[in-house]
Amino acid sequence: MAEPVHAGIPLLEAQVAGPTEVVPGFQRVALPVGPEHAAGGRMNVGDTVRIYVTTNRGKADARTVVGLEQAVVSAVGYQDVGLASSGTGTAENAQRSRGKLVWIEVLVDDAYAGGFLQVLAAGDPDVAVLPPSPTTPTQAGVVR
Length: 144
Known about the structure:
Blueprint: E1 26-32, E2 48-55, E3 63-84, E4 95-109, H1 110-121, E5 124-130, E6 142-143
Antiparallel strand pairs: 1-4, 2-3, 2-5, 3-4, 3-6
């Protein structure tokens, strides 16, 4: 977002940061995540998410922490599965088919980016989609 979001007020195109813009005070952080660890792969730009990080997944001493309390998804990456045609066979109607989710990018407050990356490096992420929120705090490393 190029400026703060206010509950109940529609967004104008000018308020949304472009794909190459970095919002002041935030960093764009990408992380690998498959559909089995990210709401079944149903992620969209603009979603509000919470990122959990688990160390020693599948072992008796596994531990999960909240890596990022809330963040906004700024980009989503899918596995390339080639071209899909709409049936008419024209180049204009061909479109790239979306494969499985392979990564997401989130906006992380400058103050929390280092802590989040440290927590993320220690384990495996799981991403939960949250209901929309008028504010988006991004606190890293909170144990749950």
